Records
---
Amino acid sequence: MSEENQEQITLVDEDGAEQLYNVLFTFQSDDYGKSYILIYPAGAGEDEEVDIQAYALPADDDPANPSGGELQLIESDEEWDMIESVLNTFLDDGSIDPDAAKENHDHH
């Protein structure tokens, strides 16, 4: 996987520090009428285990070109189950080493 065309976004953590994340992928769910973005910390090694985080994009955001609007936490277990299913399908198609990725179920 080449780093040059990897989309990246910056998030500000609870301490106000900026963290750079690579965009794993975005997708739209017709069931929930939302778009979702899955990200993982930039700078992780190829075979390093990473925390994959998922957020809902703001309703007016374009999933193909996220504007950096406020990402929304995913709060329902049904949405998490759906995201896990999409993620597992994505990992199973061989584009990412499934051993190098683990889900971050960070319910705030």
---
Amino acid sequence: MSDQQQSATRARTRQAIIDAAIGLLAQDRAATLGEIATAAGVGRTTLHRYFADRAELIAAIDAEGELRLEQAITRARLDQGTGAEALLRLCQEYFELGDLLSLVFDELQGTAEVPCPGPDEPATGAGGSEPAGQCTPALEAAVRRGQHDGSIDPGLPAYWLESILWAHLYTAWSVTTQGNLARYEVLRLTLRTFEGALAGPR
């Protein structure tokens, strides 16, 4: 096996461990490294070759979470369409993160300052206490565009709408985990209610 093939295999194995950890920890925060190794289809010894301990694996999961949140923002194309269309795309992209949302909300619940920064406070980046992308210039620009094109209530500031977005996602995640509604129906209801929140009173 060439060095390039070995490197690709190592990358796939590492990613499989991270993906398995996200899936298991979303269901059970106490999942053991042995259980994660089994879910990833590797032995415990193999897992330790990639991650020396639980803390190292958690750090890798955090980095993966930040990457996926950033990728969701990119896929949402916040600079295209009306402001409301852009935010609805972002809502759907975040929703599609699935198990990762559970870990995001768990982290937020353990943070003293959960709300998004106010209009005179600095926005928090990927290394801060809020999810990556929260109150980014791109999101604020989409809100301003929506207020100009009439798709977003001008009385609703970006930091407020960002908090409303995550509140809707939390509700969607909670309902999805209960299993009472099909996932597509949860997404439909989430987008419909978020769209109404963006428009404000009629």
---
Amino acid sequence: MASGTAPSAASGFVLGAPGPADPRAAWAELDHAARGACYDNNAAVPDSATQIAARNAASAAYWAAHASGLDIPYAAGARTAFDLYPAADPSAPCLVFVHGGYWQRNARADFACFAAGLNTAGWSVAMPGYTLAPEARLAGIVAEIGAALDWLAAHGPARGIDGPVILSGWSAGAQLAALHLGHASVSGVLAISGVYDLAPIRETVLNEALNLTDAEIAGLSPLRLPVVQKPMTIAYGSGELPALVHDARNLHALRSAAHAPGALLPVAGADHFSILNAFLRPDGLLVRAARDLLEGASR
């Protein structure tokens, strides 16, 4: 997207949709700081620091209680490793969860607590890490997630994970998950609170680490790619930033127009961080969404 150019419907934005207005419809009128604010989830959620601290503390406890499956390399990088939380039954389904952080912060261990609900429900959970920007380009990060899925397909059975895979991701992780819907081992994708068009990101402070190219924007934006005819549920919180709400709705609309299976799942009252709490209990909304995806994929 050229600097100062407002997004159009052709680039994946649907103007006039119900709910909060998409600020990117008036992109040319926004300065650099205002454009960055469209994606600043931490600033948009008043208690984000408290939520993150609670998440990290709960995850540290869960991580420490499951020491046998941690830090298992799938590639040679310092961060390219899995934390595995296998179910008692090796043939149980597995949720692969890709963390977020705008491709440049956070770690898989920070999200360990969100394996709890699925583990209690009898599922395995696998959480891959990946190299962060600017050490890695976004295209390299995408390739690492593909390598992680390849590794799990080949070596998961020896680690007690040999069931069908639902791939999930949150925030930047949702973009990474959406790009791998076509992977042979993936039965479906649960994309949560994601960014699905990268063009506006290039005109924000986030691009200082990413340095996005035209090719990356065209090839790594789910809203700019052909639709994969496998199930994808697209979840977002009703309290999310409008840019993320519209990206979720636009991706679902794109897929619906191509008759691809999958639901749009607005989570009432949830913000960008609290939405993941629906993974904490076996009856949580996101746990149920993963189950529904697996059932849909098997039909």
